[in-house]
Amino acid sequence: MESVYIRIREKARQIASRFPQQAFYHDFSLENKYALKIFETDTVINQLRTFVSDHLDDDFGHGIKHSVKVALDAGALAFIESKSYGYSQKKTKRLVVIAQSAGLLHDIKRKEKNHAAKGAIYSKEIIKSHPFTDSEKNAIAVAIHNHQAFKKTIAANGANSQLISDCVYDADKFRWGPDNFTDTVWDMVAFFHTPFAEFVSLYPKAMHSLTRIKKTFRTHTGKIYGPHFIDTGLAIGCELFKEVQKELSV
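RE: above sequence
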């Protein structure tokens, strides 16, 4: 990575560190702990995490660190959202496992064109030997297919599949907040070897894309808490842009 990007990345992380933890993690601390416990103890999740670690490149801003965060938040969202359905503890746990599985696998084809659609197809190959029902396998594939913003979605087969799909989408878009400026952007410019002047010219357009994301959250919880993730990212990005312009002038 160019030295200018290293300096800006460190400045971005300093700026981000001044912001408090997102309210989602505070207000739903028990649900997040529950999701983490399942993530750490479920056999299938551990197997899929190993697979993703071995097959997902970690140099593109969408590697295993990103996938784990999406899986954990998708699981927490599934737990929160399922409460309104009055599900048993057993069924709720199952939904969390399915959401986390889809979260882990959602970017498995990230470097390919139409990665969401290709990832959905590939996911069925990955999980065919795992103890999922046909409807659960389909729900995982649908969630992976539908996780991109501003793209046409495919219909989910029932309320549970729709729930999983929406939870994975929102968990992925949470990453467009502070994570975007602490990790993702820098991994991507390093991978693409983006010239600094080009990075600066694209910056305003990228910030506009963040603004557009605010209105796309799909779950009830995501619609409430998701915009704050994005607002925090925008605040970090606006402050950072001043530092970017200083570097450009130098």
